[in-house]
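Archive transcription. Copying these from loose printouts into the bound notebook so they stop getting lost. Printout 1 of 2:
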Amino acid sequence: MRANRLGAVLAVALTATLASCGSSEPAESTEAAQSPAASAPQGPVKLTYWTWAPNMDKIVAVWNQAHPDIQVTVSKQAGGDDAAAKFLTAAKAGNPPDLVQAEYQHLPSFIAADAVADLKAETAAIKGEFTEGLWGLVTLGTDAVYAVPQDSGPMMLFYRKDLFDKYGIEVPKTWQEYGDAARTLRKKDPKAYLGTFSSKDPGAFTGLAQQAGAQWWSISGESWKVNVADEPTKKVADYWGALVKEGVIDDMPFFTPEWNKALNDGKLLTWPSAVWAPGVLSSNAPKAKGKWAVAPLPQWNAGESFSGFWGGSSVAVATKSPNKAAAAQFTTWLNTDPAALDLLVKEAAIYPAATKAQASLSQAPEYFANQPDFWQQAAAVSAGARGFTFGPNVGVTYNAFKDGFDKALQNKSSFSEAVQGMQDATVADMRKSGFTIAS
């Protein structure tokens, strides 16, 4: 599909969404927003970059020193859904930042609002710096490029090696083996669980669905195809639903005091999570430092090596930026230059999207000092991580996940029915917003 056709697919009024998005900063008048573009800029090009990554000002300072003609100012944001809503509000008002950190799942809503520019020409030379799975997250399956990948969250299996040894459990290589190990553990220690299913964390479920081969959204001509309730997703849902119903997997949500205590006390032996998990474990389970290890996610078919993504973000350029070329030059440097990538790892503490930066990581996270090949395993997992095209209303889909799976746990009903609820809610909202849905 031609790049300029995506605009026709996505160009709908997001009035209702934008009306609900507040901004603490007053918008400039239209005349004020347009006036810089009306005449040639005096002095260096000045860019504003909205980001929540820590210490980004230190990294930008290195750029500014080397590029006196393009000066970037960092504006620290809160991150998450609030940051996405604030950017959409600013874009509608006509005064967005030149650059914005965009989580992959939010990027389609930015495109739908015509808020981010197509960077295909400016990024043609760097496509090979990223895996196919990551590059697909910023192209939506088209030949347009709407951002440059910055960090990623390939999923792996984190497990208590000492307790696996104690109970004689082998690291599961398939999900069938994971279920068998869960049963074995419950027989040996009725107070412990191999894992838990969280109905509060749609991002984790999304990554597991990606691993299984799910494709929730796609673009067909001038229409969207929505297939949240596809067979891979139902397979994942039914698998976890059966384990919970059997009582061999817990159903406590992640990131709760109860979950923290179970991790810390050795009553929860695994966490299928993302590469950023060491930071969470070091804070929430400090007593278990040096006792955890990492392995690839169990596979649906023996011998495969697939994973999915939980988290990650990119850097996009606002459509209304008067300095698109300069902004593209900066984001290209930030996410592909070796010196910049080194700073992203050391100062911003992120797992870089660029494959060469992943390969250069050597010293394991302190919490995993007992596993010197931590980053080598992460790079191997990243190479096989599957992504998919996110839709323009992922927030609706994620809320439907929480509602549906909460009810499924309470009523002990089918997890695949909850997935169908996600599908129905997503389609209904897209149609209400004016999107054309392909049959």
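Printout 2 of 2:
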Amino acid sequence: MTTDMLKYVWQFILLCLLQVLIFNNLNLGGYVNPFPYIYLILMLPISMGRIPVLLVGFFLGLTVDVFSNTGGMHAAATTLIAFYRPLYIKAQSPREGYELTAVPSIKQFGITWFIPYALLLVVMHHSVLFLLEAFRFSDFFHTFLKAVLSSGLTMVIIVFIEYMFVNERRR
């Protein structure tokens, strides 16, 4: 239990640093901004309770907000996906349920389960984040395009992380 907690603390720090130092400075044409730090919320154990997931989501977003000077936008978006994550997992659970040690990943559940799970939460996060950033519906199509393109790049990065790092460690 303690080693798992240390692993998640290390991943929290690493993903926040990568987001703040690298990915926040990556802006492709004004439309594509990847936010792979939300991968931490996606990969939390299924057995983790709703309140701890919400707290992790809030503090992850708040940490990125503090270093990005974005005034709570990331905290709102990550808390929202942390809220909907258990609902999606419960809706997609098999009749016999999940193992207590299960972690949502391509290796454990397969790509046909992981992609819709991750894509829904990533698109939800990016949509809320960019709508809060614009804070008006007059630029709806511009905001929608940013959310779709940024979600695509974020998904590519998340799948890359899954295949390059996560699956190798678990073999």
